Amino acid sequence: MIIIMQSHATEAEVQAVVTKIESAGLTTNISRGTERTIIGAIGNERELPHESLLASPGVDDVMRIVKPYKIVAREWHEENTLITVKDITIGGDEIQIIAGPCSVETQAQMDLAAQNVAEAGCRLMRGGAFKPRTSPYAFQGKGVEGLEIFRQAADKQNLPIVTELMDVRQLDSFLEHGVDIIQIGTRNMQNFDLLKEVGKIHIPIILKRGLCSTISEWLMSAEYIAAGGNHNIILCERGVRSFETAYRNMLDVTAIPVLKKETHLPVIVDPSHAGGKAALVPALSKAAIAAGADGLLVEVHPNPCEAWCDADQALSPLDIKTLMAELKLIAQAVGRKI
Amino acid sequence: MIIIMQSHATEAEVQAVVTKIESAGLTTNISRGTERTIIGAIGNERELPHESLLASPGVDDVMRIVKPYKIVAREWHEENTLITVKDITIGGDEIQIIAGPCSVETQAQMDLAAQNVAEAGCRLMRGGAFKPRTSPYAFQGKGVEGLEIFRQAADKQNLPIVTELMDVRQLDSFLEHGVDIIQIGTRNMQNFDLLKEVGKIHIPIILKRGLCSTISEWLMSAEYIAAGGNHNIILCERGVRSFETAYRNMLDVTAIPVLKKETHLPVIVDPSHAGGKAALVPALSKAAIAAGADGLLVEVHPNPCEAWCDADQALSPLDIKTLMAELKLIAQAVGRKI
Amino acid sequence: MIIIMQSHATEAEVQAVVTKIESAGLTTNISRGTERTIIGAIGNERELPHESLLASPGVDDVMRIVKPYKIVAREWHEENTLITVKDITIGGDEIQIIAGPCSVETQAQMDLAAQNVAEAGCRLMRGGAFKPRTSPYAFQGKGVEGLEIFRQAADKQNLPIVTELMDVRQLDSFLEHGVDIIQIGTRNMQNFDLLKEVGKIHIPIILKRGLCSTISEWLMSAEYIAAGGNHNIILCERGVRSFETAYRNMLDVTAIPVLKKETHLPVIVDPSHAGGKAALVPALSKAAIAAGADGLLVEVHPNPCEAWCDADQALSPLDIKTLMAELKLIAQAVGRKI
Amino acid sequence: MIIIMQSHATEAEVQAVVTKIESAGLTTNISRGTERTIIGAIGNERELPHESLLASPGVDDVMRIVKPYKIVAREWHEENTLITVKDITIGGDEIQIIAGPCSVETQAQMDLAAQNVAEAGCRLMRGGAFKPRTSPYAFQGKGVEGLEIFRQAADKQNLPIVTELMDVRQLDSFLEHGVDIIQIGTRNMQNFDLLKEVGKIHIPIILKRGLCSTISEWLMSAEYIAAGGNHNIILCERGVRSFETAYRNMLDVTAIPVLKKETHLPVIVDPSHAGGKAALVPALSKAAIAAGADGLLVEVHPNPCEAWCDADQALSPLDIKTLMAELKLIAQAVGRKI
After folding, report:
1. Which of residues 49-78 of B touch C (CB under 8 A)?
2. pLDDT at D63
3. pLDDT above 90 (res D151)
4. I need a labelling partner for C232 at 20 to 30 A (CA). Which of A18, A273, D190, D207 fits?
């Protein structure tokens, strides 16, 4: 950690900072420049009281040198983490396209959706039983009944299932229904109590990025899960909030190479929630794979116009087949396969 | 609701939209312009399937005419909502300054803090027992023990208490300790299951704005609580995320007059978390009161430099006294009192 | 245009709006809903005084139905615009990679850079003679002398040149030195007097997006140029400002498919200024081409470490060769060539 | 400047950085921590090649210690700058409200506007002769004729005039008409050639903040003007772009105390362009003065509904009188006068 003193800081103020650092077990290096005095703290800076140093008299700024996350950092674990779910590996050479409807509606809809997903060549299925909706008056999901419908539909096609957990009280149902991958949604990225709970189990977690979370905050949320013991974490970029109103959210494609450098965890992209329009999904999907994503989370519905939620962003069964063919070519172009 | 057809939409596509609207029980008004055909839906547009209309062939855009919230809208409830906690009214002529430390540390610290708060003339006290922290390695709060310490300290000064609820499983403890106002924090503004739970009780709720939530989304979260039956809701603006790096968050002062027009609920401001620096608190506090806020939520610590969290943003006991004197003048200037 | 009246608007207020619309030569369609009265204006809404309607008593909101731009809109010109510069076409099947250093430094540097660019297989060269720098104390470019150096270096390799125009007073020098494509930079996207000047000539213009300009504003700036008579406009996405601090700007990859739908103009991407780091350029370049971009604007320097500006974002001669090979594969995967 | 080496940086890479720093005339301080080696550069860091250091092998990050601006920094000039225009002082105890219409329309309109402004007690007048409009088809201002009309109208009331300069070629006309304060608008905040030109004269400049400019970039633009010799600079906060759609721009009230600490220049606020609605102007004006602003730039029109531009954001003659009375009370509450 580097402590930058104000230009008029007194010698006593400098010494008070040094004492604070040394009492935390670190040593110091003082550099007296022409305009400022700068104090370097040598040792494990995670032990230092950052805010208290910032509040000390005479201190202008405090800069961290090391990253605040450790378990999820590539600096401490160089090889890519591979996550395997029933013979399917996420984070390896093979790119995984996880497809399915926004929400579980009926058994017939889910059976048909599962068939569409399998026929398109996707190896995992997504679907929502508990739905986070902006309005209390909107359809809130089928709940536990939805989990059952989903499980049955997916089993017929031998597809592992991905579904969103919104509340710690639902976790037992998720375990009972053998949910293969648990999704923590955008609005819960910093629901720390929920993160702690999924840190205690060993089911893989898809951790979606918050709507305006920095990459650093997102990795800290992953660190919450990892610190609990669950290292099976998949990061999912899904667009961030911006000033642009021509589409829903801004897909942060730059986050993909930045995450690949910062962490060993797999990175996937949700082009459906990012763009918010089915017509944008192909371009965003291709961009994500070209930029190095390990997979996609795509909304597909047997009959998009009749979907109970997000109707305008779901691909049709034909759309997903066409897209899969296009993505195979992009995957090859970057030396991978689908 | 207004449905704008694409410029090349066919008559059949127009009719399909009309059929969809009419089957939801509304009537239509068709306006054939020089460039586009526009369909107006007449009736309760909250009954219409917005997303499904948007996904219909030939549709270019769908615009809502009425606000998605109802109980919290001033349009349906013209008088200001007044919330009374032990003789203290929030939302009336009197402006309430809620002060206290970021987190409960020890009984001695809280006793002293309560004394500081009361001496400065503040009538309610804040303090955190459960703390949402970005890092899993940071101090997470004293938990239930903290509630007990807080209750005792505040009771000695006869101050009602405000503290943050992060998880539904903590609610029973909050009720046992007689928490007077429950705060739902920024990161939980769209934790819908938590909102539903606090909608079932009648304790007043301070609902903080999400870090990049629109005013409309924020009011929809308030509507979640209200729809459950709890209309005692106080909105708290606490700064939003922006591109600016010179300070922590950007206080959205414009939200104050906009909320005053849109809703009848009281609006308060947290200048401490917004600016992130004690030195910015006086200017932001004065701006908030001048713009029409009904109160403030301010961090005060008996000894800021030694605070266990957010040390650099807490006011000292002397600071809060000085600020209260300044705020009284601003309150008078806008025809109110403190 | 649709005018939404306030819920308590009087009949006289409705009539006043109708009169305003009719006096502008349009007709009206009045729809009296359960909660609001809505007035549709039928005819050329570009003739209507939008702001004056919004200011009329009883009006709640005014919504535009048609896009404010016309010449650049695909709605009015369905085929892609192809721009040809000395046998090289931008906007067609062939993707163009425009490469070169941030700034012109010396004849030797530019000669070597031109050789690097040509050897890598790029067909156009970029370089800055006039430099917009945030600091008045930073190197401001070689000016007219730089144009001369650039012209000579590029001519030896038969490369058309792209360079930035910052001030109308420099335009004559640009014409004298036969600049093949004039770049209007991010900071000048809404320098309307400059846009009007380049609207009077016929040299192709690369119009970079402003740092927080919406797609609609950007197209309106293109419309400024087009309205003057110059339809040879290339749009360049270069990253927008966001809250993220892990890299410089956020590349808006979604803008590519949105622009392809909205306009017939070619769209290119500048991955160097977006990411701000050479290490991010390959991933962003591949994403851009996969999403449908017609070309790239890439910083390449014979010796990046010694570059006089933006040293950390320039590719080396070897980097650009490697990237070109990778991009050829992506181009093929999307049915195009480089 | 502090150079943070990568964790695996070699000794040779460390030495290369040291050599680069020393060859620029500075000395170094090397601190070898447990995880990283850090190099401090001692001396005038403005002489160091920031980007080139960042591009050096083995370097992870480079942090500046001193601010990039100097003439405008309070660190080097502690007293407030006072700017006097015909007996009126900006930046002193007296707060200045600069009022007037968005654009010059006719002599009658401006005569009436000047009378309204003077009668309300405002001491300076604003008005636009050259208008930056997003659309090429919108009214572009009356140009030089507008300057003449404005000058005549203001002279009758003895009001100094403030008007916007968009292009260097208009500067002579501005001098001829004796414009008292020249405004550089939001879209030209980084039009560096224009900044250099107004740096050569001695007329006070109002420099508006760019739509998404950081405070640091804004001060760098002020430094451009100051570096040319013109130190009469007034900073004008006018709202920044955000994700919020409930109003036009987000007034950054926090910028006021931050600027007051960082610079000695006067700071004013434009509440009209920020909120974009006349109804929001009073609350934003009061907030600005309460937060420490030295003045306001407010749109007032004799007949807002008929204004040729920004009709919905102008105050009426009665509105401005009422507002002035309210602002006097706020000014007193913060120990100033209007």
Report:
1. 63, 65-66, 75
2. 84
3. yes
4. D190
One domain for residues D58 and D207: no
Q: Does D8 touch chain B (CB under 8 A)?
A: no
Q: How far apart are the first and last CA of chain A?
A: 44
Residue B238 CB coordination number (10 Å): 21
> Is residue C73 classed as helix, strand or coil in its secondary structure?
strand
Chain A residues touching C246 at Cβ < 8 A: 214-216, 255, 258, 262
D310: left (phi over 0), alpha (psi -120 to 50) or beta: left
Q: Would residue C190 count as lying in a domain?
A: yes
| Helices assigned H by DSSP within C83-240 | 107-119, 144-156, 171-176, 192-199, 215-227
pLDDT of B74: 94
Q: Who wins on pLDDT, C61 or B71?
A: B71
Query: Are residues D33 and D105 both part of a single domain?
Result: no
Give me the domain span that covers residue A199: 74-333
Q: Determine which of D66, D130, D312, D319 to mutate to test the interface with C (most C C-beta atoms within 10 Å).
A: D312
Is the same domain home to D82 and D46? no
ipTM, 2 dp: 0.94
Do D21 and D163 lie in one domain? The reply is no
D225 within a domain of the structure (yes/no): yes
Which residue of chain A comes nearest to D32, CA vs CA? A42
Token representation of residue C80: 């892609």
A123 and A156, same domain (yes or no)? yes
Q: How far is CA C95 from the centre of its chain?
A: 17
Helix (H) or strand (E) holding D38: strand D37-42
- Of B144, B4, B135, B6, the residue nearest B62 (C-alpha): B4
| Encoded amino acid at B333, one letter | A
15-54 in chain A: CB under 8 A from chain B = 46, 49, 51-52, 54
Q: In C77-146, which ranges are E strands?
A: 83-85, 88-90, 96-100, 124-126
Inter-residue contact B107 to B145 (CB < 8 Å):
no
**Pairing verdict, β B181-184 and B161-164:** parallel
Q: Which residue has the tokens 């930073």?
A: C138
Q: What are phi and psi of D97, to 5 degrees?
A: -105, 115
CB contact under 8 A, B245 and C245: yes
Q: Which residues of B103-135 are buried (b: 16+ CB within 10 A; e: fewer)?
A: bbbeeebbbbbbbbbbebebbbbbbbbbbbbbb
User: What pLDDT is attached to residue A144?
Assistant: 95
| C-beta atoms of B136 and A227 within 8 A | yes
Q: For chain D, say whether C224 makes contact (Cβ under 8 Å).
A: yes
Q: How many domains does chain D have?
A: 2
Long-range residue pairs from B182-189, CB within 8 A, at least 24 positions apart, any chain: B182/B206, B183/B126, B183/B208, B183/B236, B184/B208, B185/B132, B186/B210, B186/B211, B186/B238, B186/B273, B187/A190, B187/A191, B187/A192, B187/B132, B187/B211, B188/A191, B188/B132, B189/B213, B189/B217, B189/B218, B189/B221
For residues B216 and B149, membership in a common domain is answered with: yes
Q: What is the mean pLDDT of residues A92-118?
A: 97
Both tokens of residue B162?
């405000």
Q: What is the CATH number of the domain that holds A294?
A: 3.20.20.70
Q: How far is CA B322 from CA B281, B316, B318, D287, in A?
A: 12, 10, 6, 19
> Could you tell me if D170 and D309 lie in one domain?
yes
What are B166's two structure tokens? 């992060």
| Amino acid in the structure at residue B76 | W
| Interchain CB contact of A135 with D (< 8 Å) | no
Decide if B291 and D291 are in contact by the 8 Å CB cutoff: no
Over residues B187-222, the pLDDT tens digits come to 999 999 999 999 999 999 999 999 999 999 999 999
B80-121 pLDDT tens trace: 999 999 999 999 999 999 999 999 999 999 999 999 999 999
Both A174 and A52 in one domain: the answer is: no
Q: Residue holding tokens 């720093």?
A: D21
Backbone angles phi, psi at D90, to 5 degrees: -110, 130
